[in-house]
Amino acid sequence: MEQRVLDTPAIRTAPPFPLPELYSRVERHVPRFEWPIMADDIAAILKLKRERNAVILAHNYQTPDIFHTVGDIVGDSLALAREAARTDADVIVLAGVHFMAETAKLLNPGKTVLIPDLEAGCSLAASITAADIRLMRARHPGVPIVTYVNTSAAVKAESDICCTSGNAKKIIEGLGVPKVIMLPDEYLARNIAAQTKVEIIAWTGHCEVHERFTPEDIRTLRETHPGITILAHPECPPEVVAECDFAGSTAAMADYVGQKRPARVVLLTECSMSDNVALQYPDLDFIRPCNLCPHMKRITLKNIRHALETMTHEVTIAPEIADRARQAVERMLAIG
Ligand code: SF4
Questions:
Q1: How far apart are the C-alpha atoms of 242 and 191, rounded to whole Å?
Q2: Spatial contact of 76 and 67, defined as CB atoms under 8 Å apart
Q3: Which residue, by CA, sits nearest to atom 3 of ligand 1?
Q4: Which residues contact 120 (CB under 8 A, 6 or more apart)?
Q5: Do residues 231 and 255 make contact, with C-beta atoms less than 8 angstroms apart?
Q6: Where are the beta strands (DSSP E) in the chain?
Q7: Which atom of ligand 1 is nearest to the CA of 99?
Q8: Which among 155, 219, 241, 293 is least surrounded, fewest beta carbons within 10 Å?
Q9: Atom of ligand 1 nearest to the CA of 150
Q10: For the sheet containing 161-163, what is the strand order?
Q11: pTM of this prediction exceeds 0.85
């Protein structure tokens, strides 16, 4: 019988599978045949990080190839802001959207902060301007203005204090006043208003990812997946939050999954958040009717590599804005 010879020259000269340890972190998400191309960018990024003394801050909504391989500090807006204030790197690359890069720059005025794509914006940040804030202050004299971190530095500069979805209630109640203006996310403001006695004056901004979820989505999920646990981000409409099992910030949702270990779960939030959490808990069944954030998805391994190679695009903030905006962020970090 003819014996097949497996040790052909082609096999002997095949390059070794690249970065196997990093691949093991994402193998349930990235097909094996796609990995060598990604690994080429990842290896270049790791080398550039060492050469530049750079760190990459990666938001939970980044794709797993970024979040689980090149991100040095990963988390939600609050975690990234906190950690940005602690890093001793010379260069910060923000794998996220522009307002996050601005926040990192506010907290690290002496460091170089890069964003791989200047067009990585946010529908909430785009919903309000500094002039709008001045108008609200004139209309409601003496009422403190609490601004969600999902805003430009110019808007933060007109505010009294910032908040995130994770600390909004604590910040608002910590002010010790009966009434606050909370901008710009209408749904977050209404969801927090339902939990506190403080009167909240809201704006009409929405997150284009979370506003698309509906109560009908929840009912359909419960019908098609009996026993499912449904988590929602508080940027979702209040009618959605009212029907879910738990509503919380990005970090709070991840903690809930880790602690409660629901056998079957859905996260009503951005798609990559589910993907990243699912990779951490392979024993849980994640149903994923998610919505993509087109702004977050502008960041790729390729443009992170390009950012570090060319040191672009550098985020700068005019000093007269930066000083006041920094105070609003630092007041938030001092409270929570
Ligand atoms: S998910 Fe929503 S809040 Fe976050 S960056 Fe995208 S548009 Fe903005």
A1: 9
A2: no
A3: 207
A4: 96, 97, 98, 295, 296, 298, 299
A5: no
A6: 54-59, 73-75, 91-95, 112-114, 145-148, 161-163, 179-183, 199-202, 229-232, 246-247, 264-268, 285-287
A7: 5
A8: 219
A9: 3
A10: 161-163, 145-148, 179-183, 199-202
A11: yes
